[in-house]
What we know:
This protein is α/β, with parallel strands linked by helices. It is built from 13 helices and 23 strands. It is about 35% helix and about 25% strand. It has a seven-stranded mixed sheet with strand order 1-2-7-8-9-10-11. Strands 17, 18, 19, 20, 21, 22 and 23 form a seven-stranded mixed sheet that branches. α4 (about 125-135) links the parallel β10 (about 120-125) and β11 (about 140-145). α9 packs across α13. The chain is elongated. MU-OXO-diiron (FEO) binds near residues 105, 168 and 246.
Amino acid sequence: MDFGASFDEESDNQCDKEEEQMHCVRKVTDDLYWVGANDKRLALFENIHPIPRGTSYNAYLLLDEQTVLFDTADWSVCRQFLDNVEYVLNGRTLDYLVINHMEPDHGASIEEILLRYPDVKVICSVKAEVFMKQFGFDASFVETVKEGDVKSFGKHQVTFVMAPMVHWPEAMVTFDTTAGILFSADAFGSFGSLDGKLFADEVDFDRDWLDDARRYYTNIVGKYGPQVQNLLKKAAGLDIKYICPLHGPVWRENLGYFIDKYDKWSRYEPEEKGVLIAYASMYGNTECAANILAAKLCEKGLTNVALYDVSNTHVSYLIAEVFKYSHMALLSVTYNLGVFPVMANFLEDMAALNLQNRTAAVVCNGSWAPQAGPKLVEAVGKMKNTTILNDVLTITSSLNGDTCAQLEQLADVICESVKGE
Ligand code: FEO
């Protein structure tokens, strides 16, 4: 992905400093180009989730007998996106704009496309047309499509597959049946800037992307597991060679690996046998108990343990981890006769995202009215198919001989449960 690359049919990227436009494109296939943009300045995705590695807003441009743009980009990168489109069009006009998803991180630049290419025909779902008007875009030519509709752009024929609630109700995905390319909207996306590496096989995905992909999925689409399952069932009937999501890398190899991850996440099945220990501590005593629990688990041979202070870990990371592991141990100090607020927020988020199929252990601390325990049990107990391993282990101010022994027993119970599953 060269910044300042000139268009050349024969190569992926070439630099030509004489070009006026500052373009940054990559070939996906011979006639399909990535024309999106990266944003490393944005601190919070959706103004809530930290993205220290930035994000990409992917859009794709097909040069067939007709030219077809698949989605647009966030307003923040509009200039780069428009330059990319103009550059790849190389003097041609834009014939079609396919809108798979209307959320403004992809739809915000629609108006600019309409202004620059006034004859463009917009293709979208019925609901997307409604949203387009709600967001104030007035396209002259809108063709709404429904499940299974087919459209030919010359050599390439596409079919439209509705994907409601992945992640908004208007969402659809478009499958290029000629080339086997799935334009998958938010599905199969990830946080993180591409930094030139468009394809998942150009990086060590597990090392460089998996954590961000999981955090993206679980926090953005995690609530809609059944709807993702519906989409996966439809996708199973397609001969997919490429997956082109709206965020993160494009997949052209080993697609089954990532599809399996999505299948697992959307069924709320843990990826790994292991324990997330999340603690809320005010003066270090609950933290001490969490550290001792982690040490005891490791001592007993259970080393797949992750330990987090909920007060200094953004909840989006906690959510990703609780989706990853089979077990969670929640330790909270009592605050205002309830669970410590940041832990309560984590529990609320778990419930909102429909987390289920987990096993939990609960520990509370309190100096005179340790009421966090029952509240923890109540919150975890509401999660579908989730088991609580222990009666609440209650610490009064700090660990003593008795509660230390109980912590040891709890470690045994957790180990047995993890190994037994
Ligand atoms: Fe990346 Fe739901 O938008």
